[in-house]
Please model this.
Amino acid sequence: MPPRRLLFLLYELSFGGVERQAQLLAEAAKSQGHHVTLLVLGGDGPAHPRFTPICEQIIILHAPVNRDMALHQAIRQAVQPLQHDAAFLFSTAKLPVISHALRSRIPMQIMHVGNPTRWSWMEYFKQSVRSLYFRPSRQLFLVANSRYTLQSLNDHFYYQPFPLSFSLNCVRIPDTPVSIRETCEPLRIGMVARLDRIKDHATLLRAVALARKQGVNVVCELLGRGELEEELKKLSVELGLEQAVRFIGWSADVDSTMRQWDIFVFSTTEQEGFGNAAAEAMAAGLPCILTDIGPCREVGGDAVRYVPFANPQALADAIIALQSPVIRRDLSTRARARAQKYFRADRKLADFLRIAFASRGAA
Model:
């Protein structure tokens, strides 16, 4: 495929999963000779340095994202001098407004959908009304990050008429896997996720307490921040886990933090769209325990252990079972092999480019 001029559009430059997907895809695009411009609707943020070496231009709009007409005008003015072959968008918020603002200059648009779309008449009404004033491009394709998310789009009256497909999220694959310790004293477990209601940290904390009551010296680190931080810290104290649970906050080097763990736990809810952190842990070769809900089986396949939703005892039992180095080594090997096969950034970029160009014979 000849080099393409690609516009990446983000709402902000935080350290979230959406920004991580954009970064990895932009890196893959640059490595293949494509030209990437980044357009940020809001203000600057801590992820800016990550994009600087991989983008030929970064445009920070500081646009009024809550005012449709003003947002539309800001985007349209920003892209007027640009010449691009396709735009990669990373949020369905204000989809008609953004798509319409781009379509005269960049009609080919790929929308990455990272979370399940919950059906509501209000969402249907708002997007439908917007579409009356801001008609989306006829070349807008919605690409879900899992079959689970894809099904939610098919179930939503507003989104189902668009061309829909899915492509699993990508993660960085470390050069070397983690080391599997023979004896774990203490048994170090961890989870990377925002401390919000989409996840289920409370079940993990209760599982740690149960495992410790059964004589297993488990310590747990939670990497992330969010609205439930104080609530979860209070629960940790109530469970007597002040010395066993550590709230790390955000880290600029997640990989190094995870490499100190023996087990990765991803305790979540059915609102989960994919589970980037779980895929990253698998790529590092960490033995993983995932909640058996949402798209987690799409992520984990047969390379992880699963536990029922909101079941602290089942999670505690799984943690205790993974004290065995034989089990952890087996899970480590299978997890890394699965990540190398399914979660590479060049594979996801190929999906996006195929959808954008190959189907029209433009490749």
The chain has a mean pLDDT of 94.
